[in-house]
Amino acid sequence: MTKTALVTGILGQDGPYLAKLLLSKGYRVYGLIRRYSNPNFSNLDFVGVTDEVDYVEGDMNDEASLLNLIRTIRPTEVYNLAAQSFVKSSFDQAKLTTEVNSLGPLYLLNAIKYFSPTTRYYQASTSEMFGLQHTNGYQDEKTPFHPRSPYGVSKVYAYWITVNYRESYGLFTANGILFNHESPIRGKQFVTRKVTDGVAKIKLGLAKEIRLGNLDARRDWGFAGDYVEAMYLMLQQKESNDFVVGTGESHTVRELVELAFKSVGIDDWKKYVVIDPQYKRPAEVPNLRAKPDKAFKLLKWKPKMTFDKLIKTMVEADLERNKKKTT
Ligand code: NAP
Ligand code: GDD
Q1: pLDDT, tens digit, 9 for 90 and up, residues 229-282
Q2: Do residues 259 and 174 both lie within one domain?
Q3: Pocket of ligand 1 (CB under 6 A)
Q4: Cβ atoms < 10 Å from Cβ of 239
Q5: Domain check: are 158 and 104 in the same one?
Q6: Is residue 296 domain-resident?
Q7: CA 295 to chain centre
Q8: Closest Cα to residue 257, out of 301, 198, 316?
Q9: Residue 261 to residue 270: CA distance in whole angstroms
Q10: Which residues contact ligand 2 via a Cβ below 6 A?
């Protein structure tokens, strides 16, 4: 029997990498997209799977659309990647963020409970749930949550409803508590891509500066292509479980900036960076570093791409894309 997967958030960053992985394993992949006059398939084009995905229409805010999809497709697995995922916007659009990120998962879980209880469910949980909390400088599955944004709060609800439907109804549900992961198709608002795109533009003479917020924040940055493998592995386990996924290394935004400029031969990066308060957050998450021992042991998963390689790869991709604008 062909395995089937419904992937929400298929047009985002992780969706295309996950679709590619599942297709390579012989899955039929259904990708949920919202109703658009002109949907943007550029991320799927980048990984080369646009024509291999079956697109289905629905919205995380529309319960009936999700009930109907689960009832008709009855997928082997659901990967719920859809979210209002930009932390900064969640402070200004808290209600929308909560509806998509908290109620959306509830709708999917209810649909699975009523119409397809053997479907396995992956919830895209996040290190943002830890916020201020850490255990000796790192976060693992036992670290308590103290979210610092409406985004983080919304994801804590989704985390617990995912656990609750496992405990209450015996559904196979898994939370992947993923730390920051990036790629050449990362949204340009997120700091890595903002920096790599900005550096490429400066190198090519298309821009003069990059405006940034807090350079002291530390993140555990990995490669999205590695992290979707962990998502897949979580749904192949005997028992459903929750896993922290990260590299175990953390770097400041300042280090990221320095590395990106260095990769194009610019050492005096301070000339090009302007600190702009509009990019600071009302409450910051200062330090995220994963202790992914459980994933290493039970999933036998390991990140393959280093931080240096990741940033260099992103800068190179942005140089290529921006070069087209100069010709
Ligand atoms: P992303 O690039 O922002 O993609 C999110 C996707 O969600 C977009 O395709 C968006 O659709 C879709 N979406 C938003 N609202 C929707 C709605 N109402 N109905 C249907 N779809 C909707 O995010 P990502 O980086 O791929 O992350 C995937 C998931 O992992 C998210 O849930 C995120 O919160 C979580 N996560 C990400 C990271 C990370 O570092 N990347 C770390 C931990 C957890 P449109 O294209 O139509 O806008
Ligand atoms: N976006 C952005 N823009 N961030 C900046 C800037 C800037 O100009 N200047 C400094 N930063 C800092 C932010 O304050 C934050 O501390 C850090 O850079 C990373 O910001 P983002 O790249 O926006 O990511 P995030 O850590 O807030 O959230 C991402 O990772 C989470 C997992 O920890 C998102 O992908 C979330 O969806 C995900 O859950």
Answers
A1: 999 999 999 999 999 999 999 999 999 999 999 999 999 999 999 999 999 999
A2: no
A3: 8-9, 11-15, 32, 34, 59-61, 81-85, 100, 124, 126, 178, 180-181, 187
A4: 8
A5: yes
A6: no
A7: 17
A8: 198
A9: 10
A10: 85, 87-88, 126-128, 179-180, 189-191, 194, 212-214, 217, 219, 253, 279, 281, 284, 288
Residue identifier of the C-alpha nearest atom 29 of ligand 2: 180
- Told to judge if 126 belongs to the known catalytic residues of this protein, a careful annotator would answer yes
Q: Examine the residue annotation and report whether 182 is marked as an active-site residue of this protein.
A: no
Answer whether residue 160 shows pLDDT above 80: yes
d(CA 214, CA 277): 8
pLDDT digits (tens, 9 = 90+) for 88-135: 999 999 999 999 999 999 999 999 999 999 999 999 999 999 999 998
Q: Are residues 140 and 57 in the same domain?
A: yes
Same domain? For 176 and 272 the reply is no
Kindly report the pTM of this predicted structure.
0.98
- How many residues does the structure list for the chain? 327
Kindly provide the residue ranges of all beta strands, DSSP E only, lying in the chain, ordered along the sequence: 4-8, 28-33, 54-57, 77-80, 120-126, 173-178, 181-182, 210-212, 218-219, 222-223, 242-245, 251-252, 273-275
CATH (domain of 156) = 3.40.50.720
Backbone angles phi, psi at 31, to 5 degrees: -110, 125
> From the CA of 89, how far away is ligand 1's center (Å)?
13
pLDDT digits (tens, 9 = 90+) for 5-36: 999 999 999 999 999 999 999 999 999 999 99
